[in-house]
Amino acid sequence: MATFIKDKWMSNENKRKLTWLTFILPALLIYVTFMAGPLFDSLRLSLYTGEGYNPTHFVGFQNYHNLFTNPLWRDKFLGAIKHTTIFFLIHMFVQNSFGLLFANLLSTEFKGKTVYRTIIFAPATLSVLVVGFLWTLILNPQWGAVNQILIALGLKQFALPWLGRENLALPIISLTSVWQWIGMPTVLFLAGLIGISDDLIEAARIDGASEWRLFWHIKFPLLKPVIGIVAILTFVDNFNAFDVIYAMAGAKGEPAYSTDLLATLFYRTGIAGEHPVGIPNMGMGAAIATMTFLILMTGVLLWLYFSRQQVND
Amino acid sequence: MRAPKIKLQHLSAYIILTLWSLIVLFPLWTLIINSFKPQKDIFRDPFNLPKNFTLDGYKAAWSTGRFDLYFTNTITVTLISLTLILFIGSLAAYALAMWKSKFSIALYIFFIAGLMIPIRLGTLDIVRLIKALHLQDTLWSLIPIYIAMGMPIATFVLTAFIKELPSEMFDAAKVDGASEWQIYSQLVIPLMRPALSTVAIFNMIKIWNDFWFPLVLIRAEKSRTVALGVSLLFGQYRTDWTRALAVLSLAALPILILYILLSREFIKGLTAGAVKG
């Protein structure tokens, strides 16, 4: 009986393939239609120009040429790249270093550890928009819970219009976002640290290694794979950030475009339409999306290349 | 020698973690207590519990803002999208895990590549597509996008999970004459529950909090989600702090309460994309 069924299965190899295909088909169809397809079609769209939702006039690489050479576009575009890079780097270093510190503190057994972890992670569950609006109110110079505290502490000179100054707005908004997302690296590093064998750490302690040396010479090297994952997640998430700027600085990245990121530039150009015309320029929007895509791909491929190399070492 | 050193280390851990916890809790505390105060008290005494308790902000948000509608819309979109993500995703994941061929590996890589590429970059074509399908301004414009958005994480987490199930189990079921569909629906689905809940929570938070696609695709009041409603009302209430804070609290509280109840699952769900990366 068993062999008979087995033979039947083998002889029905094609039928089996068909079954697998029908299982995969719904997922594939919706994924291609609403995600992969539009992503690739955006590359094509960037070669066209025209107003409204159907750019039909083929212009080759003209949109890219404008983006890089026409001062009207170039300054905003390069500005957006610069701001996005700063936004990303603040996350990369501030968020991830503190995440690593918190994870290291949470990796030992003590009372209340779960409570701390729950609190640290809590903002990550909230909507970015809500967090952005909330901090706008708290940093507001009129009510400004933050400024009230600073004044009460006798630090009146530091009670600034945080979001109103060109040199302050971007770092402050980035730190707000760090406040929200710091739980992610914390939890990921914590998982990595828990994976390190207790025996190894115990042995090093018995050998008289200080906590500092223990961290840098044993834990840190073993955490490298997790650090890699955290780094690439930070990169992809932050090169794509939009909501927090929209909530705290508006779609134009106020003040004076000083917080304008690639995603806000993309939104204004391709979807909302730039002031004063208010008509979206989809071809140019697609060109900005494609450039963002290329930056992301370059980062991801470099990351894959280097993480492969580490595995081979 | 060792014991006091470790205690000292615990003390510094307590100090640093408590300090950060206060930084996390302070804005949330300020938000919630002030949403129950009249405007005057918000400015005069922002850090204490309300003395003149009021629900005006919530009433105004609820009546002018139609929060009943926004919540219904968001819940509808989230539930339909999640159900379909779990069904379509697990079906595909089962096939991807069991079908040993180069083609299925290529398909798997194609799916999980979406983990690294944000769907937002394709927004312009999505807008054109939704308009061509005449779905703009309806909840049905959001649902297929969210399902597509959920596919990479669903195939990633679920395929890995099925691959770790013992293969003898599947062989035994086949010997008993079970079809692939029967194995999937009666054997795999019940076993997959923990992985399904991880995928569900990951997507639930993404979908519930998504602002980008409602912003781009929806104007009509009847189809507004909580996030879109919050952004429009917050603009209107710029000078009325009681209302502004009530709106934000309304948006934040349901998810915070759920998080407090299920924090372990939430943390696992939200970090799922990184595991085994």
Walk me through what this model shows.
The complex is a heterodimer of chains A (313) and B (277). In chain A, 73% of the residues lie in helices and 1% in strands. Chain A is built from 15 helices and 2 strands. A two-stranded antiparallel sheet of chain A has the order 1-2. In chain A, a hairpin with a 7-residue loop joins strand 1 (48-49) and strand 2. Chain A starts with a helix and ends with a helix. The model of chain A has no long low-confidence stretch (mean pLDDT 87). Chain B is mainly α and 277 residues long. Chain B has a single domain (69-274), classed as MetI-like (MetI-like fold). Chain B is 75% helix and 0% strand. Chain B has helices at residues 2-34, 39-44, 56-65, 67-98, 102-113, 123-132, 142-163, 167-175, 180-191, 193-209, 212-217, 226-236, 241-261, 263-270. Chain B is globular, with a radius of gyration of 24 Å. Chains A and B meet through helix 1, helix 2, helix 4, helix 5 and helix 6 of A and helix 1, helix 4, helix 5, helix 6 and helix 7 of B.
Strand and helix map with partners:
The complex is a heterodimer of chains A (313) and B (277).
Chain A: H1 2-11, H2 13-45, E1 48-49, E2 57-58, H3 62-69, H4 71-106, H5 113-121, H6 128-139, H7 145-152, H8 166-181, H9 183-195, H10 198-206, H11 211-222, H12 224-238, H13 243-249, H14 262-272, H15 282-312
Antiparallel strand pairs in A: 1-2
Helix pairs in contact in A: 2-15, 3-4, 4-8, 4-9, 4-12, 4-14, 6-8, 6-13, 8-13, 10-11, 12-15, 14-15
Chain B: H1 2-34, H2 39-44, H3 56-65, H4 67-98, H5 102-113, H6 123-132, H7 142-163, H8 167-175, H9 180-191, H10 193-209, H11 212-217, H12 226-236, H13 241-261, H14 263-270
Helix pairs in contact in B: 3-13, 4-7, 4-10, 5-7, 7-10, 10-14, 12-13, 13-14
